[in-house]
TrEMBL record:
Entry's Gene Ontology molecular function annotations: protein tyrosine phosphatase activity
GO BP terms, alphabetized: neuron development
Domain Tyrosine-protein phosphatase span(s) in chain numbering: 1-226
EC number: 3.1.3.48
EC supergroup of this enzyme: hydrolase
Name of the protein: protein-tyrosine-phosphatase
Keywords from the UniProt entry: Hydrolase, Protein phosphatase, Receptor
Catalysed reactions, semicolon-separated: O-phospho-L-tyrosyl-[protein] + H2O = L-tyrosyl-[protein] + phosphate
Residue stretches making up the Tyrosine specific protein phosphatases domain: 159-226
SUPFAM superfamilies hit by this protein: (Phosphotyrosine protein) phosphatases II
Amino acid sequence: MQAAYLLENQEKNRYMHILPADFSRPFLPRNYENTGYINAVFVDGYSCKNAYIATQYPLPQTILDFWNMIYEIKSTVIVLLQDIDFQDSKNPQLWPSTDLEVFGNLQIECQCVKTEDNTIVRELYLRISSEMEEKESLSVNIFQVLNWPVTDNLPSDTSSLLSVLKKIKLSQCKLPITVICLDGATACGIFCAALYLCDRIQSEQEVDIFQAVKCIKVNRPQFISN
């Protein structure tokens, strides 16, 4: 956890008791705008290493780091859990307010928004361009699960959670899947464990909740505290 404690990185952590170890976090390209650090961890799935990324909801000073991580790692599915209070100045809106928004040198365009099964699905288009070259674009879907209070372990209606799990499995999306909740642990742990269990059921027709929780807690011990 050495990088998480560096003075220049401390403001990038929501909670100083939920920090990523250096061996488990994504490394961002270092430049004048960032230190290469982000409060996020890779999480192994049942049949694939680093199948998921669990991260805290971005702060105003880390939203550019978040989108750079998504672009660099080529994560095409983002799952946003819990009812984030966007009126709080610490919780900037993750997606463009208009059709197109620029975050640093990254252009993000909102292509489509639809609501189904207590879930808002946003299709975004990411592109980094420079004077020297035009880099490849990335299509990203954000699944925003509604009716999940930050103070609750589960959403008030679990059908939305099950619906998102089903959509992800049917889409056969490219890994890793990025999972977000306010602290990067509480709800993320529930969802990563559910993904792990779905993979095991599909592969072996077996359910082992203890093993699923044990596996995902390796890189983030704060997952599923009770």
